[in-house]
Amino acid sequence: MITIFMKNFKKNLINQATYDDYIHSLTLSDIPCPYCNQVHSLIHHANYTRSIKVLTHKVQLSIHRVLCTKCRTTHALLPSFIVPYSQIDTSTMISIVFHQDHHSVLENNPLLELSNIRYILKQYNLQFKSFLSSFSSEPLIVIIQHCFYLCF
Ligand SMILES: [Zn+2]
């Protein structure tokens, strides 16, 4: 997986055309393979469908996969608004973890349920809290950029 940091992204503009435009604006030859670190080796390989809950509706995206011609591994090109293995977008997850008012999060995201919030908080406490605290002196944007492969 290669997560592409998307600056100035607007949640209400998540759709296939926006994703495709952004992916096509990338220069694949500039992106090193995350497995073997070789540049000039990634080529478009395939697509797979991914669902994500955005505000009041579910969006289906055809995610691009690339193949490294050197080590033969494949990698999905995930925009930074998608959290791997989750249908809940990144900004909603941040709202859940860092804001106490979960009722407003539920009101703004009608597809979410209280069980989703409990699960995200449990995962945050189990897996991410100690990781993020290791960056305690860094501004939040620097921490976020450490989590992504490309930063624009
Ligand atoms: Zn490779």
Overview of this structure, please?
Helix content is 35%, strand content 22%. With 152 residues, the chain is α+β, with helices and mostly antiparallel strands. The protein has one domain. It has a four-stranded mixed sheet with strand order 1-4-3-2, with helices on one face. The protein is globular, with a radius of gyration of 16 Å. The two termini are 18 Å apart. The structure holds zinc ion.
Summarize the structure.
It is built from five helices and four strands, in the order βαβββαααα. The protein is an alpha+beta fold.
Q: Strand order, biggest sheet?
A: 1-4-3-2
Distance between the termini: 18 Å
Order of helices and strands: EHEEEHHHH
Instruction: Sum up the overall morphology in one term.
Output: globular
How much is the average pLDDT?
Answer: 83
* Proportion of strand residues: 15-25%
Bound molecules: zinc ion
Largest sheet: 4 strands, mixed
Radius of gyration: 16 Å
User: Helical region count?
Assistant: 5
- The count of DSSP E runs of length 2 or more, i.e. the number of strands, is 4
Q: What is the count of distinct domains? A: 1
State the share of residues found in helices, binned by percent.
Answer: 25-40%
- The computed structural class is alpha+beta
Enumerate the spans where pLDDT stays under 50 for 5 or more consecutive residues: none
Note the main attributes of this structure.
22% strand; 5 helices; 152 residues; binds zinc ion; four-stranded mixed sheet; alpha+beta
